[in-house]
User: Fold Circularly permuted type 2 ATP-grasp protein from Methylocapsa polymorpha.
Amino acid sequence: MSVSVDTIAKELTAAQRLDALVADYTPLAGIPDEFIGADGRPRAHWLRYLDSLTDLGADDIGRRFAAADRHIRDSGVSYRIYGDASERTWPLSHVPLLIEADEWREIAQGVEQRVRLMELILADIYGEGNLFADGDLPAAAVTGSPDFLHPLHGVKPPGGKFLHIYAADIGRGPDGRWWVIGDRAQAPSGAGYALVNRLVLSRAFPALYRDMNVKRLAPFFQAFRRGLTSMAQRSDPRICLLTPGPFNETYFEQAYLARYLGFLLVEGGDLTMRDGKVHVRTIAGLKRADVIWRRIDSDFADPLELNARSHLGVPGLVDALRAGGVVLANALGSGVLETPVMMSFMPKLCRKLLGEELRLPNIATWWCGQRHERESVIDDIDELAIAGSFGNPVLRFPRNQPVIGAALTPEEKNRLVAAINERGIDFVGQEVVNLSTTPVWKDGRLTPRPFVLRVYAARTPDGWKVMPGGFCRISDRADARAVSMGEGVQSADVWVLADKPVEMVTLLPTDETVRIRRIMGTLPSRAADNLFWLGRYLERAEATLRVIRCLAGRMIDADAQTVNAGWTVAKLASLLVSWHAAPGASASDPMALTALALHGDKDYGSALSLVRDARRAASFIRERLSPDAWRLIGDVNQALEINGKAMLTEAEAFDHADAALRTIAGISGLAQENMFRGAGWRLFDAGRRVERGINACRFARHFASREAPADDLDVLLDLVDSQITYRSRYLMGVALSTVRDMVVLDPFNPRSVAFQVERLDEHLENLPLLSDDGMLETPRRLIVKLAAEIATAVAAKLNNEEILEFEQSLLGLADAIAARYFLQGAHVARADKSSGLA
Assistant:
């Protein structure tokens, strides 16, 4: 009987609701299942969880699931499928994977043993090479891998430690034991998503999470952080997380972990070599990087000695490693352990190096670089999966994807056998993996789906520590043999159940002697650059939206249909054209122009394009933005995309622009009220002030020329949001000199040029100096000069030429800020910065 969640009503008993929930749950034939044991009966810990879950009632369960999904969406938790242009919302499975304490203890011991073995293998491969000399590991099985880096041979990392974090992908085998499916020693991903899954699900079901005695994840991350700190040469080290950048598939996770652990998120362009050490380029000069947790592949880490095409790494990094000038987690070249060929030697190497059998066996693997194994694989090809020894593609199939021998056509099979005979070192035969299943919530009931569990181990001052949980990926296909974060895949929290209540532990320090700090840490030049441009883009978008709203409002107002009003409307329309807000539109067709200026995406000046630019700049500094700010930027972007039409009425255009302006005002309010007053905030606000000052000058030149009619002056007050203040200050109508004074020279008007200049002077005065010689740096010298010119200007004598000089001074100031504080050079990657306003 199929029962939907709607029928699991509150009036049913708990037992009836549970029966309805699992009525159709049938494990796949011959496949182990987490819920149903080998004896065909539900496991006790799962029944305990489901009893508590169904006690909540269908309505409450639905609300909590919806709250979890909303929290993920609102927090911007996302990932990217390789090759996709846009991010996707993180797909959280609502039901956790449950593992009892005794079973977890065996898993943890197996993972801990495996990482100790991996460390010894790496040390030998890049050191003395005894395994090669003794014949325990064929040299071709290592040197044939593109992940083996010869320049690192003989380079001993600080403390002699190659691995600092390791992960094993595991699944339950047909005999019910856990088996290792793959090793992750290069730059294991997913730990941050495991943490997100935990925070979201424990928040949605706090009582259930507590009552199930779920082991906490915070101690693992705390120990990992201590481990990296202990490897540094200084007592207060600077730890950096090296990311490939915001277009990487797991960039959200990297930014999230950097914030959670208190690490500095950097890209390759943020780092540079000096005197055998790695330094971060910051707005206060070069600052030493003591420890780097890399999330880029080894080959891309140094374009001088490794991959010359890489724009992700740090030129000279290998030299810094030779000199012992930086700790790298994990050591370059550790990816050689991830190749399928290494699995064929793991049982033997474990006996050789540890004198033990593998606690967690891996998939049975045979390397075709050996004659006997090659012949055996060819004979049994129909019963095996064939994979590339070093991640290389097999036949027409993508890299790292094994092919099932029995699924090949006779022609394909013949081609594959010929390739194996010709160059056997490139192939391995493996036992076909049928993943075990775990319950997922689907259409109001539980159903089994295949999964892979990634378990992490971190080096700590007290030895290796295994995360009590992990990163679980669940396929939506019942016959999946491997799971990656692609279409139809969910991720589940992993609850390791303790035998007794678990002590609450967080990353918050409890030592009363912890040193208090009131100044934020290092601000990399790249982050400063994007904070500055985020402010500029938001202000540009606001200026464009104000022009659109004013234009639509003038067309709505029937009382404004005078000769001068028509001239003013034409001026507003021509301003949008000159700003490239509506390519191809004509100022003589204001309605078509307005729609394009709002929602067009063909040029850089439209409101939508500017908001997209702001979102792109924000994506580079995601770890520095609050979830609320990120959500608001996404909201205004989504609203402008959804509301786009070929033609809008005047009222629709006004409403769309007005709504977008309110959201941008919310972003500005968050920055003013919630953003720490450090260098990052000052540069973000400086970007806004520069752009607002430039816009105010342009508005004044267009609408406050010497012959400007009253309608133009009235529009100018609208554009700078100063109508109420002007009307309360001057009881008579608008006049040229008073309007000019309020828009350009009045230091008490937060929309005036003078006000922006005062704030810019304040920001530049408080930003770090490169030297303490008492001389003004170029940006400060420019702003002091401009402030004096504006302070001594007289409104009655002010003309467009002088206002243009103010505008050009602000443009020159923006360039000077960029030259002083931001990364320079042709190969520096940053958010696009089109000229925007003409």
